[in-house]
Amino acid sequence: MTKSSENTNTAVAQDPNEAPAGIPVLSLENVAYAYTKGGKKIFHDLTYRFESGKVYAITGPSGAGKTTLLSLLSGLANPTEGQVLKGGADLAKLDRYRFRSHDIGVIFQSFNLLPSLTVAENIILSIDASGKKFDEPKAEIARRMLERVRLRPEYANERILHLSGGEQQRVAIARALSYEPSIILADEPTGNLDLSTQDDIMDIFKSLAHDENKCVILVTHSPEVASQSDVVFQLAALRRRRPAQQGGQQ
Amino acid sequence: MFVLKNAWKSVIRNRGRNILIAIIVAIIAATATVGLAIRNASSEIEEEGLQSTKVSAAISLDRSKLISQAKSSANSDSSSSSGSSGSSGSSGSSSSEKPDFDSMRKQLSQSSLSLAKYEKYAKASSVAVSTYYSEQTSLDASTNFQPVESSDSSSSSSSSSDSSSSKSQSDQGGMGGQGGMGGGMANSGDFTLTGFSSDDAVSAASNGTFTMTSGKVFGYTSDSDGDVIISKALADFNDLSVGDTISVKKTIDDTTKTYKLTISGIYKNTSTSSTSSQGPMGGTSQDADNQIYTSVSTLEKLGIDSEASNADDTGTQLSYTYVLGSDDDYNTFVKDVKAAGLSSKYTVSSPDVEEYESSLTPMKDLSSFTLTFLLIVLGVGAVILIVLNLFNVRERKYEVGVMTAIGVKKPKVAMQFVIELLIVTMVGLGVGVIGGAVAAKPLSNQLLSSQVSSAQTEQTSQQQQFGRSANMGGAPGSSNSGSSDSSSSSSSSSSQAAPSMPSGDNGPGAAGATSSTKATSYISSLNATVNLKVVGELVLIGLILTLISSLVGIIFVMRYEPLQILAERS
Q1: Is the N or the C terminus of chain B less surrounded, counting Cβ atoms within 10 Å?
Q2: Which residues contact B44 (CB under 8 A, 6 or more apart)?
Q3: How confident is the model at residue B473 (pLDDT cuts 50, 70, 90)?
Q4: How far apart are CA B425 and CA A29, in angstroms?
Q5: Residue B402 to residue A71, Cβ atoms within 8 A
Q6: Looking at CA atoms only, how far is residue B567 from chain A in angstroms?
C-alpha cells in the first residue's frame, strides 16, 4: 500500500534512554479516515512511524489525503479507524489542545494567521497558548524567529494583512517554531517562496531535525523539497490502489 | 492571563463596533438607572410609610351592609307571616312593597357602639394604642346668652323648631343620630357643646386649631366640671369674660332644662375655616363661633353624655378615635379588633392611612409604569446585544478557528469573548450610570409631576362633570376640597364654615375632621438618587445581559471544531 524508504515493520521503540535520533515520536497505526461516518475513506489501513531527528516529506497526487493526514497528525481530527500515537499514547485520548499548543508546530497551507493582529502578536499568541515559560521576553523571541526566517525586524509590528503570501508563509513558520515544539508539521511550506528563500527554509528545517533533534514532517508537491528530505513518504491515491489493496500487505 | 490581555487588545482593535455596543449599553443603563432609582425611592417611601407618624383610626358602621341585612330580615319576616296565610306569592308581593323603614332605623339605632365597647377594643389591641373621644350635643340659647348670628329671627325660629327637631330626631331614632344626613337636624340648636376626653381630642377638634386669648383650657377631672371655653366672637357678642357664668338650655322630651356653665377661657380659631358662612339648613350651632368646648366629665355631670340613659333623646353623639404609632400598628389593630369580636357590621378605617395611600397613587402608578418600561428596555437591549454579538462572533469565526487550531482551549476562547463584551458593557454601564444618576432626579420628578397633573386633570374633569368635587378621592387643587367618603361617615368640613356638623355617634367624625384639615396632596417629589443599591443592581443587570448575549458566542465557539472552520475558510 504505502511506499516508503523506511521499514514500516520496525518495532516501536519505547525506551526513552535510547539514542535520541530514531525515536518514533508520532506513529500511525492502521489509520483510516472518512469525513462522514460510513462515507468514502480518504485512506485506509495506514501504518507509519515518524522519528525525531529526521525530515519527512509526505508526497502524493492531489486528493491522496495529504492535508487530511496532516490534520490527523496535528490532532485536529481523529482517525475513523486505527490510532495516531504520540510517544506510544493514543492521541485521541490525550489533551489534543495541549498537544497542538505545546508539542507540535503546524504551518498550515493557508497559514492561518490572524489578519488583524501584527506579526509579533501572532507569534506571541502562540507562545502564550503553549503555556511554556521562556527566560527571554516574548517580543525578543518573536524578533529572533523573524530573523531566522529571513524577515526584517520592522515586520514585527506590521499587520498580517499588509504582508505578501511569501512573507505570511515565513511568519507562519516563525510562529510554529517560536515555542520550540518537538514536532514541526508543514503543509506546502515552500509553496509561495522563491528558490533562494525555499533553500533557506529547507535549511532551517534540516537544522531543526539534525541539530535540535526535532521531527519535521513536510507535506509537499515539490520534488526539490522531497529530495532534500531524509525520508519520503509517498501517499498514493486510494482509488487507484483499491484493487492492489485487496492483495496487499498486512 | 493572556486571555485577558488578548481580550483587551481585541477591544482596542475593534474600537468602532465596541463603541457602538458601549453606547447601546449606556442608553440601556441610563434608562435602567432612572427606572431603578425611581422604584427604589418609591419603595422606600412606601416602606417608611407612616412608620413614624401617628395614625388615627375609627370604627364605623358599614351602613349599606346593615341595611341590606335589615331588608332581608324584614323580607323573611313578612314571608313567614304571609306563609301562615298560605300565600305562595308572598315574597314577590313583599319585595314590591315599600321598604320597611322602621325596622331598618331600629337596626341602625341599635348599632351604635357604646363608650365601653370602644374602650374594650382599645384594650384588645396588641399594639400600643392611645385613645381620645369627644361627645357632641346641641344646646339652646338663654335670654342672657345668645349665639353669634346675623339675623335675630333665627333665635326664635330655632327655639321653636327646636322641640320639633328634637322630637323628630327621637322619632327617627338612630337614623338621624347615625349619620351626616340627619346630623344637621339633630343639631339645629343654637350652640354645639362638645365634651373632650383629653387635650388630644381638643387638638383634633373638628373646628381646627385655636389659641387661647384669655384664660385656660378646662381640665378633665371632675374638679373642672362646668368649666367651658367659648370663642372670642361669642364672648364679645355676649360681652363675657373669663370667670363669667353662662346659662344654656336643652330640651329633652319636651322638658327644657337650664344648665349653668363657667367660662374658664376664651379661644380664637386659628385655622382657616371662616366663621361667616353657613348653609341655610344648618342652625347657628354649626357656626364655628358658637362652639362651646368642655370636658366629657362636664357632660356626664350634666347628664347629657352619650352614656346617659336618655342618650337617644339628648342626641349626644360620640366620636371615638384610636391613635396608633404607625400604619403597621394600624393593620395589627384592625386584626386585633376583629379578633376581639367586632361585628362585621363595622369597619375599622383610618382616614390618615387612606389619605396617605391616595397620596401615593401617582407615585405607585409611576413606579409600575417604570417597571414595565424597564423590562421592555432590558428585553430590547438584550435582543440588540445578542444580535450584535452574534454578528461579532460570526465575523470572528476564523479567529476562533485559528485560536483553537494553535491549541487555545475552547473555554479560553469563549472566555476571551465574554471578557471582551464585559469590558465594553462595563464601560457603557459606567457611562450610563453616571448619565442616569444625573438625570434621575429631575427626570423622575418630571415624570411624577405629569402623573400628578394627570390625576388632577381627571379630578378637574370630574368636577366639571358633577359641578362639584366628586366623591372620588381627594382633590388637591380644588379650593372646596375635603370631599370625603360618605360611607365612612367622615365629615366633609375642611374649608367650610360650619365644620362641626356632627356625623353621628359612630365615631369617625373626629378622625375625619383631623384628616380633612390636611387636604390630599399627592407625593410630588421623589428623591430618586442613585445609591449603592441601585449601582449594585445595575452591575448585576449588566452581568446578566453580558452573559445572556455572550451565550451565543459561547455556544458558537463550543460547537465548532477548528478543522471545520478552517476548512470552510480554505
Answers
A1: N
A2: none
A3: very low
A4: 50
A5: no
A6: 10
Task: Give the rounded distance of the alpha carbon of B180 from its chain centre.
Answer: 21
Residue recorded with cell 499514547? A89
* Per-residue pLDDT at A214: 92
- The pLDDT, as a whole number, for residue A238 is 53
Q: How many CB pairs under 8 A join A and B?
A: 60
Examine the pLDDT at B501 and tell me if it is beyond 50: no
| Bridge partners, A231 (sequence order) | A56
Residue B112: DSSP 8-state? P
The larger pLDDT score, comparing residue B504 to residue A109, is at A109
CB count within 10 Å of CB B505 equals: 29
Please list every residue in chain A whose beta carbon sits closer than 8 Å to the beta carbon of residue B406. 100-101, 106, 112, 125-126, 129, 175
Quick one: three-class SS letters along chain A?
Answer: CCEECCCCCCCCCCCCCCCCCCCEEEEEEEEEEECCCCCCEEEEEEEEEEECCCEEEEECCCCCCHHHHHHHHCCCCCCCEEEEEECCEEHHHCCHHHHHHHHEEEECCCCCCCCCCEHHHHHHHHHHHHCCCCCCCHHHHHHHHHHHCCCCHHHHHCEHHHCCHHHHHHHHHHHHHHCCCCEEEEECCCCCCCHHHHHHHHHHHHHHHHCCCCEEEEECCCHHHHHHCCEEEECCCHHHHHHHHHCCCC
B516 pLDDT exceeds 50?
A: no
List pLDDT tens digits, range B1-28.
788 988 998 899 889 889 989 999 999 8
Whether residue A97 and residue B563 make contact (CB cut-off 8 A), yes or no, is: no
**A100·B566 Cβ contact <8 A:** no
Amino acid letter for position B381: G
B-chain CB neighbours of A160 within 8 Å are none
Q: What is the pLDDT of residues B98-137, one digit of tens each?
A: 666 776 666 666 666 778 788 888 887 777 788 888 888 8
How far apart CA B556 and CA B553 sit, in angstroms, is 5
Stated pTM of the model = 0.62
Low-confidence ranges of chain A (pLDDT < 50): 1-20, 240-250
Q: Is the ipTM of this complex over 0.85?
A: no
Find the farthest-apart pair of alpha carbons in chain A and give their distance in angstroms, rounded: 58
What are the structural domains, with CATH classification, of chain A?
3-246 (3.40.50.300)
Q: Which set of grid coordinates corresponds to residue A211?
A: 541539530
Contacts of A100 in chain B (CB under 8 A): 405-407
Classify the C-alpha dihedral B528-B534-B539-B543 as positive or negative. Answer: negative
Which residue, among A127, A161, A160, A131, has the nearest Cα to A145 in the 3D structure? A127
CA B149 to chain centre: 36
Residues 396-435 of B with CB under 8 A from A: 398-399, 401-410
Is A76 in Cβ contact with B406 (below 8 Å)? no
Of B141, B240, B224, B226, give the one whose Cα is nearest residue B188.
B141
Residues with Cβ < 8 Å from B353, sequence gap 6 or more? Answer: B50, B55, B57, B327, B330
Q: At a CB cut-off of 8 Å and minimum separation 6, what does B450 contact?
A: none
Identify all chain A residues contacting B570, using CB atoms and an 8 Å cutoff: 109-110
Pair A4, A45: CB distance under 8 Å: no
Would you state the pLDDT for residue B437?
A: 85
Are the beta carbons of A125 and B570 separated by less than 8 Å? no
Residues 233-252 of B with CB under 8 A from A: none
Gap between the Cα atoms of A172 and A224, Å rounded: 21
B207 contact A CB<8A? no
Task: Tell me, yes or no, if B15 comes closer than 8 A to chain A by beta carbon.
Answer: no
Average pLDDT over residues B161-178: 39
**Is A112's CB within 8 Å of B406's CB?**
yes
Q: Of all helices (H) and strands (E), which one includes residue B409?
A: none
Provide the pLDDT confidence category of residue B487 given band limits of 50, 70 and 90.
Answer: very low
Residues of chain B neighbouring A125 (CB-CB closer than 8 A): 2, 6, 403, 406, 408
* pLDDT exceeds cutoff 50 at B172: no
